[in-house]
Amino acid sequence: MSDNSKDGARARQVRYAQELEGHIDWLNTFSGTALGVLAVASGIYTYLGVSSLLDDTGALSTFAALAYSVAVSVGIFVFWSYLLRLYPAVTTARARVALLGAMGLGSLAIVAMSSWLNAAALAGSAAVEQHLAKTVQDYQQSLERAHEIALTGQALERDVARVRQSFEDLSEQEATGNLSGLAGRGAVFRVLRQKSAELSALEAQIGQQSPLVETAFAEGNAILSRMRALTVEPGPVEARSVEFSEAAVRLQGLITQMRQLTVAPLVKRAAQDLAASVVLPELDSRTAEGRSDQAATITSVLEVLGQRAMTLETAAQDVAALEPAPEVVYTPISSADAVILYARNFVPSWAGAIAIDLLPAVLVLILAITQSVIRHLRDGSAVEDTLTVAELRAAIAISREIEEAPRDTRRPPAENPKDGKISPITGTKPTGTKP
After folding, report:
1. 45 found inside a domain
2. Rg of the Cα trace of the chain?
3. Which of 226, 249, 301, 398 is buried deepest, with most CB atoms within 10 A?
4. Within this chain, do residues 141 and 210 fall inside the same structural domain, yes or no?
């Protein structure tokens, strides 16, 4: 490649570099202002986030929140100002890696002290409402599960009724003499009636629980309906959270009551007592053969009684072994905690809160890339290639001033008149002096 071609290519690179420098100079006119606006906006949202964390609403708390937000704004502005100036200026790879590490640490510090509070200000109320809605769902599952277990326990009433009816049928057969062969209401009849009466009392107890279960379930649904309304009602979420807490306490009490209304433990104990506690009456047959038949029949009845009691106990154990309703406890949380707890549901808010703090990092990288390009384009260029028109005009003007300076200022100094030297003004020796 000829020297002329090389000079032309170098000149084009210089012009390109000068064009980029002109763009950077124009951008620098408002970059500081833009950075200040971003820092102030972040400080405002930080103030709102801090205010939501403070319980006291007095002047001291307001001043504390304001001081924190101002410190955040100043810190963000100074941090990014340092990087906007220093990172594009360094040229070595080691220095750039070190500054990148410093930028990463500073970004983490900004997220820790500002971004999560900004997210709390942006989506704090919505996050608290999300927490309320999630709690309502948990309470609904717990209430429905408690009701399901209670209804399953109430279904034991049919098992008890079936066993009771079987003993009543046997007693009727004994009354007609079809069981032991002795008609009447003797010892076998009384044993059967004794157990039938016990089962009838148990059946009545189970039946009394049914209205209580349904009443508690209906009241629980009414409380749940009110809690759902509180999650979407307009107004400050803090006031709604207070009423929500009160409703949650009442609902938890109803769920506990429904757990206690299950009859499975009652049926289990009754089934165990059914075969264990039998009052055997005196055999009342007039003949020894009759008394022997009564004793054999009672033995058979006791065997059947044990089998039926085991069946009831197994059914009650199956109900008692059901997975209980989950324990739900509502814990009020602040908007900042809610934003962190339900961060996945508020990704846009988190992205906006972080972007407003870390957007200058993109500007730092853009400026660093541009400065690298400018340095690459200017590499190997002579000084005269980098002069602008204004700089060239200034150099020419200075050169002319030097050339047009008075000539006598460049003459050698004349002799001093007193010393007999030539005068710098007249160029002659003064009179009365020796040659």
Report:
1. yes
2. 50
3. 301
4. yes
Q: Tokens in use for 387?
A: 């002069």
Which residue is it, tokens 């007999």?
420
> Cβ of 275: how many Cβ atoms within 10 Å?
19
Number of domains forming the structure of the chain:
3
b/e burial code for range 297-330 (CB count within 10 A of at least 16 → b): bbeebeebbeebbeebbebbeebbeeeebeebeb
- Give the residue numbers spanning the domain of 418: 406-435
Look at residue 392 and tell me if it is in a domain. no
Which CA distances in Å does 335 have to 50, 247, 262, 402? 10, 20, 39, 74
DSSP string, 203-221: HHHHHHHHHHHHHHHHHHH
CA 425 to chain centre: 93
Vertex 158: Cα angle to 155 and 160 (nearest 5): 110
The pLDDT tens digits of the residues spanning 96-138 come to 899 999 999 999 999 988 888 888 888 888 888 889 999 999 9
- Cα gap 302→202, rounded to integer Å: 19
